[in-house]
Amino acid sequence: MPFTPGLYVIRSVNDRSLIGRRIHEDRSLNPKAIVKHPENASNDRGLWEVTSTPDPDRYILLNKSAHTTNVGDLVMAVLLQVPPPEEWVIEPAPQSGPNRYRILNSDKNAGWLAPEGPPDQHVAIRPGNNDDPAFVFEILPQDDD
């Protein structure tokens, strides 16, 4: 299902935690961690811009204006041109309910994995069981959340 470019809120389906960059980050130009936030965090923590690519099934995901990519099997927001953005595949997970998706790398051999436990833990990129809810995210247009 193609996504319409625009603003979306991303949450883990496991615990409804928002997914996004940390509230407090260092001031360097190093890549920034994508982490889970408490369920009651303000929606701007989990606000994402989804942009299209020439391939209609792939998307660039930006959080706080920074594109995301895989750095050491972790989802990171990149402030510079290097490393380049990952072209993510957003695949429906209809068995998990409406507006539920897996976010996969461009090869479709690994996907975002929501961390368990307390907030502020990194979202990882792992091969895994597509039926595992830790690999499923709710993605809603900003106006619907």
UniProtKB/TrEMBL annotation:
Sequence segments annotated as region (Disordered): 111-130
GO molecular-function term, one example from the UniProt record: serine-type endopeptidase inhibitor activity
Alphabetical list of Gene3D superfamilies matching this protein: 2.80.10.50
InterPro entries, alphabetized: Inhibitor_I66
Pfam families documented for this protein: Inhibitor_I66
Domain of life of the organism encoding this protein: Eukaryota
Name of protein: Uncharacterized protein
Originating organism: Tetrapyrgos nigripes
